[in-house]
Structure formats: C-alpha cells, structure tokens
Amino acid sequence: MKMVRGTLGMIALSWATAAGAQVQDMPGGPGVNQLNLHTGVTPIAREIYSLHWMMLIICTLIFIGVFGVMLYSIIRHRKDKGHKAAKFEEHLGLELTWTVIPFLIIVGMAIPATRTVVAMKDTSSADLTVKVTGYQWKWGYEYLDGPAAGVQFLSNLSTPQDQIDGKAPIGNTYLMEVDQPMVVPVGQKVRVVLTAADVIHAWMVPELGVKQDAIPGFLRDTWFRADKPGIYRGQCAELCGKNHAYMPIVVEVKSQEDYAAWAAKQKSAMAAASEDPNKTWTKDELIAKGKQVFSTTCVACHQANGQGIPGTFPALNGSTKFVLAPMKGQIDTVLNGHPGTAMAAFRDQLSDTQIAAVITYTRNAWDNAGKGPDPVVQPSDVKALR
C-alpha cells in the first residue's frame, strides 16, 4: 500500500510540475499563482488595489483578535480547571465599547471606499468617448469623438478553432485574443458608454480597474485613464449564454502619435472597404466572403459542419425551412432574428453585402449545393428587405 501511495504521489507531482511548466503569465492578463488583484495601470485600479489590501488587513486583525480571545477563554477558563462562569446581566462600558469600536472601524473603511466609488462614477470631462455594445458573443466599438470619430468595428475571438477543439497546442493568450482590439491613447480620460443588443453582458478589464454591466435598452458608462502604453485583457463578466467564455476584451493603449496614426489608418480602411450595395457579385466572390463571415459570426451556434446543436441551434445543412427555401425568409431571419429563439438580429451588425454573402455561402456549403431555389443572393436583395 505504501508503494502504491508513493507511486501515485510521484505521478501527481510529475503532472503538476509539467502543467506548471506549460502555463505562463499572460501579457496584460492574469498571472500564474496570482493571489491578489492586479496593481493596475490607472488611478482607479491602484485605488481599488490599495483598498483591497486595507480591508484584508483590517478583517485579518479582527479575525485574529476575536478568535484569539475566544480560544484563550475556552482553554484558560474551561470547567475541568474548576473555573466558574461569571454571572452578570449588563455592563454599560463593555456594551459601549463593542458598539463604538466596530462603528469607528466601519466609518474608517467606508470613507476611502466611498471616495473611490464616487471617482469611478465621475465620467465628466472625458477626452474620448467610445460606445461599446455587447453581442452574443462579441463586442462592437464605435468611436464618437476625437481623431477616430466615426470608426466602428466588431471585435471577435481570434483563437484558432483547432486550439479550442484540442487539436493544436494552446497559445499563451488562449481565449483572450481578438481580431481587432479597442485602441485608446495613453494619458487621456476615456469614457466608455455601454449597452447590449441581446442579453446582459459585462465589460471588465482588471488592469484598467473597469467593470460595468451592458444592459439591453439602457446606456451605462464608466471611464479609465491608462498611464502607460500596452495591451490589457479582460472578459465578459456576466454569464450570457453558450459562448460566454468566448468573448474576450483587448484594449491596446498607444502613444498620442501612434493613436492618431491608427485612427487615420482605420478611416482609410473603412473608406476603402465601403461597398456599393447595388454591385452584382459573382457566386464565387460571395461564397468566399460568406465563409469568412460565417466563421466569425455564425459558427459558434450553427457549427462548422452546419449541423447546429440539436434542441438549441438548428442545423443549416439540409434545412428546407430556411436555407433550401426561397431567399426572402432567410434574409428576413438574418436581418430581424427569430422571436422566441436564440437567433439574434444582425441588421445592425452586418452590412448588406455581408448578409448576402453568408446566406449565399450557407446555400452552397455542405450538402446544400445544387439544391433549393435562389442559390445566389445579392446585396440589393437584402437592401430591398431592410
């Protein structure tokens, strides 16, 4: 038996050592064996860190004091030593002491905490305002002022599907990487206005000291001012459905000059990417573009093989109700969603060209090729039904 326990212990130790060697600190994210909050790169984050330490020390001292006295009394005044319990009904001085001291402790904790909470909610005098919209399961960013005014994009998880499926080694930023991060300038107060298009989400970046709910139909705001350039990572902090773990947040803080250059580049890219909704695309062009849209927007629910998830997300492969039916029904569903189901409306997320492309892709992918009417959908078809 001792030999068996020893062998099992060695196996467990070897496994733990190997696992520890593989896991590394994530740049801008959590660290290995991190036991405390992030020290942060914003004034609010540092205040939260200091408050956490202050509260922890006070609570630890109270714990030691209370349980120390209790254990001392139990051991020192136990019955087998002949100790007899004191008999008294009231003691004004003692009652005042254990009332006043906790009150003073609470006030001493509340004053700095209240000051920090008030500062967290002061979004006035911002240098830059960014609207952030939560979707299942991605984030939308729209810059409302400053050099990047008018820039907007969707930020999707960029971890390769092979890593998620366990077919490839995971990277150091596994599930915490995106195709397009939010970019802000260093040293400027950034106001973040939050809402959601479907369910409640929460925008949280620990290094920035920010966590705010995004609620459908409401606008909530928060702010941060990063002191140094870098990449800082966070996640949706509100359980929001099947792929809740797959909607990371990445904020890249750049110098003023680099931010201005990024803003100009984004505006140029948006102008170059603007598409004529009346253009007639070839079938191959639409399928190629639609495959990209499907991989970032649709694959989480309907799966790469088009089979969906039985009972939750319907299959697109062989779907005679939508995909292998006249295109009007499928266009309407993608634009406006399907009430009573998890199918969201994409009219505000995707352009006419993207919707036409992804519908064309689904009508020609898997076993759907060559079946059903309307194998090609043009942007003008989508525009007509908006």
TrEMBL record:
<feature type="domain" description="Cytochrome c">
    <location>
        <begin position="285"/>
        <end position="366"/>
    </location>
</feature>
<keyword id="KW-0732">Signal</keyword>
<keyword id="KW-0479">Metal-binding</keyword>
<keyword id="KW-0186">Copper</keyword>
<dbReference type="InterPro" id="IPR002429">
    <property type="entry name" value="CcO_II-like_C"/>
</dbReference>
<keyword id="KW-1278">Translocase</keyword>
<dbReference type="InterPro" id="IPR045187">
    <property type="entry name" value="CcO_II"/>
</dbReference>
<keyword id="KW-0349">Heme</keyword>
<keyword id="KW-1133">Transmembrane helix</keyword>
<keyword id="KW-0813">Transport</keyword>
<keyword id="KW-0812">Transmembrane</keyword>
<keyword id="KW-0679">Respiratory chain</keyword>
<dbReference type="InterPro" id="IPR034210">
    <property type="entry name" value="CcO_II_C"/>
</dbReference>
<dbReference type="Pfam" id="PF00116">
    <property type="entry name" value="COX2"/>
</dbReference>
<dbReference type="Pfam" id="PF13442">
    <property type="entry name" value="Cytochrome_CBB3"/>
</dbReference>
<dbReference type="InterPro" id="IPR001505">
    <property type="entry name" value="Copper_CuA"/>
</dbReference>
<dbReference type="InterPro" id="IPR008972">
    <property type="entry name" value="Cupredoxin"/>
</dbReference>
<dbReference type="InterPro" id="IPR011759">
    <property type="entry name" value="Cyt_c_oxidase_su2_TM_dom"/>
</dbReference>
<keyword id="KW-0249">Electron transport</keyword>
<feature type="signal peptide">
    <location>
        <begin position="1"/>
        <end position="21"/>
    </location>
</feature>
<feature type="domain" description="Cytochrome oxidase subunit II copper A binding">
    <location>
        <begin position="125"/>
        <end position="265"/>
    </location>
</feature>
<feature type="transmembrane region" description="Helical">
    <location>
        <begin position="96"/>
        <end position="114"/>
    </location>
</feature>
<comment type="function">
    <text>Subunits I and II form the functional core of the enzyme complex. Electrons originating in cytochrome c are transferred via heme a and Cu(A) to the binuclear center formed by heme a3 and Cu(B).</text>
</comment>
<dbReference type="InterPro" id="IPR014222">
    <property type="entry name" value="Cyt_c_oxidase_su2"/>
</dbReference>
<feature type="transmembrane region" description="Helical">
    <location>
        <begin position="53"/>
        <end position="75"/>
    </location>
</feature>
<dbReference type="InterPro" id="IPR036909">
    <property type="entry name" value="Cyt_c-like_dom_sf"/>
</dbReference>
<comment type="similarity">
    <text>Belongs to the cytochrome c oxidase subunit 2 family.</text>
</comment>
<dbReference type="InterPro" id="IPR009056">
    <property type="entry name" value="Cyt_c-like_dom"/>
</dbReference>
<dbReference type="Pfam" id="PF02790">
    <property type="entry name" value="COX2_TM"/>
</dbReference>
<dbReference type="InterPro" id="IPR036257">
    <property type="entry name" value="Cyt_c_oxidase_su2_TM_sf"/>
</dbReference>
<protein>
    <recommendedName>
        <fullName>Cytochrome c oxidase subunit 2</fullName>
        <ecNumber>7.1.1.9</ecNumber>
    </recommendedName>
</protein>
<feature type="domain" description="Cytochrome oxidase subunit II transmembrane region profile">
    <location>
        <begin position="29"/>
        <end position="124"/>
    </location>
</feature>
<keyword id="KW-0472">Membrane</keyword>
<keyword id="KW-0408">Iron</keyword>
